Amino acid sequence: MPNPLDATAVRTWCGLALEALGRERERIDAINVYPVADGDTGTNLYLTLESAARAVEAAFDGHASAGTAPVLADAVGAMAHGALIGARGNSGTILAQLLRGMSQELAGAPAGGSGAADALRTALRRAAAAAYEAVAHPVEGTVLTVATAAAAAAGTAAAEPAAVARAAHQGAAEALRATPGQLAVLGRAGVVDAGGCGLVALLGALADALSGEVTAAPVAVGAGAALPVAGGCRVAGQEADGGADPHAGGPAFEVIYLLEAGDAEVARLRGRLDRLGDSLVVVGGDGLWNVHVHVDDAGAAVEAGIEAGRPYRIRITHFGAGPRAAEPEPAARAVVAVVAGAGLAGLCEEAGATPVSVRPGEPPASGELVQAIRQARAREVMLLPNDPELRHTAEAAAEQARAEGIRVALIPTRSAVQGLAALAVHEPGRSFDQDVVAMTAAAGATRYAELAVAEHRSWTMAGVCQAGDVLGLIDGDVAVIGPDLARTATAVLDRMLSAGGELVTLVLGADAPASLAAHLERHVRERHLAVDTVVYAGGAYAAPLLIGVE
């Protein structure tokens, strides 16, 4: 029986699509020859959708904690935003715009019947149009063509969302078969468009989510099949050309960043980046954009973003054209730590760790952690998630890195102050197992607290809080509610030190009052004998105050 087009269907769609792309990621990577043959389209699509799926789960969790249920607008909005902030590569950036286009039309759609079907048709058309608008120089025979064909096929379907989605999937698969005849580089290589493969998989998952019937065979991503409608990605009877330099004659760098800027500034940025390079895709809106471009001068691309607004999460990848310099021998052991705030990132770097910087509400995907583990260039890596919500993500990243031959230990740090304690006892000269035990013990011996400002009235374990109250969370639970940072922090410290302690670590966020550290140091000195205090600046995006007691 078909399912309604609601928030649960979006959640199911994300899960099925992520499974499909995860299953077929390597085969999509293998046929990636356009716009550059860097073999990462499948991976980029997977990481982009992983970010979207995480955002949807966060939306469901947020509503559950408030005792409400998400509606369709919540789910599709979260999916689009998650894809936007997590978009990877050319293909992932276009996927983010496709989802944004769909979300804009589906937000107010009814759950079933002809109204829902009409909304889905309109959403597919809007998605294709939005993707064309985002690409500076659209090319036929790519995911853009496949998206347009999907929207056209959806227009002829019966008046049920499941039927519309199934028609879109079949139309996309048929269009995918034609891509080698539309784009010469695909025809020469004997493959269909890799990004189009990913879109067919995504639409197949949507059809499955709405129909309630999961297809048995992988949809449109098998690299060795003869291309039936739901078949593979390689053109029958042809072999891919794997011998050519994938970047010969092209720009040397891929530059991607998120950008906070207005529409007018982004319009000027498009023109400037278009003159600097190619494969330009700018997606987003409402003040937040994802910018992707291939250039020879990566610095100029970033500077253009700085002039337009505030770029962050900047990723620059060298395509590897030309002679490769000798790579250094991998280090014996390294530490990778997830942190919020430039100050904490600097502390980690000073301690010899590789920081993965995040912003509140934008947790890293497992792919980002895997990439950080790789960039640490070590045979053995200690991974510090510093957040209980990242446990599953960190476990997935560790498993992937282990499959690549890297020995990874996941240190169960639940806060940045536990991470600092673990870093303080890290000793590469010890055996791997001894180092794991020492770091885990140091983290476990550190109680942690965080001060936050309540955004609305709610019930907590410490009673009812009002908007604007300062909450003192000890080991993850609200233990103190106070009127300001100083008095709440003092109460939290006294409660934590009542069980004993030798060292207090204070990490102050950028918005914390300048006098707060001195006040707390004086309080500890006067009220708790033989307890030392150290103070660090957490910087922007760090919590107002983190406290660790060892």
Note down, in words, how this protein is organized.
The protein is globular, with a radius of gyration of 25 Å. The chain contains 18 helices and 16 strands. Mean pLDDT is 85; it is low at 219-232, 236-247 and 321-327. The chain has helices at 7-30, 41-65, 72-86, 89-106, 113-134, 143-154, 161-182, 184-189, 194-211, 263-276, 298-308, 342-350, 366-375, 391-403, 416-425, 432-444, 485-497, 516-527; strands at 253-260, 277-285, 288-295, 310-318, 331-340, 354-358, 378-384, 407-410, 447-453, 458-460, 463-465, 470-474, 477-482, 503-509, 532-539, 545-549. With 550 residues, the chain is an alpha/beta fold. The strands form 4 sheets. A 6-stranded mixed sheet has the order 13-12-9-16-14-15, sandwiched between helices. The protein folds into 4 domains: 7-211, DhaL domain (Serine Threonine Protein Phosphatase 5, Tetratricopeptide repeat), CATH 1.25.40.340; 253-318, 2-Layer Sandwich (Alpha-Beta Plaits), CATH 3.30.70.120; 331-444, Phosphotransferase system, mannose-type IIA component (Rossmann fold); 447-549, Hypothetical Protein Tm841, Chain: A,domain 3. 49% of the residues lie in helices and 19% in strands.
Strand and helix layout:
Blueprint (H helix, E strand, L loop, with lengths): L6 H24 L10 H25 L6 H15 L2 H18 L6 H22 L8 H12 L6 H22 L1 H6 L4 H18 L41 E8 L2 H14 E9 L2 E8 L2 H11 L1 E9 L12 E10 L1 H9 L3 E5 L7 H10 L2 E7 L6 H13 L3 E4 L5 H10 L6 H13 L2 E7 L4 E3 L2 E3 L4 E5 L2 E6 L2 H13 L5 E7 L6 H12 L4 E8 L5 E5 L1
Parallel strand pairs: 5-6, 5-7, 7-8, 14-15
Antiparallel strand pairs: 1-3, 1-4, 2-3, 9-12, 9-16, 10-11, 12-13, 14-16
Helix pairs in contact: 1-2, 1-3, 1-9, 2-3, 2-4, 3-4, 4-5, 5-6, 5-7, 6-7, 6-9, 7-9, 10-11, 13-14, 15-16, 17-18
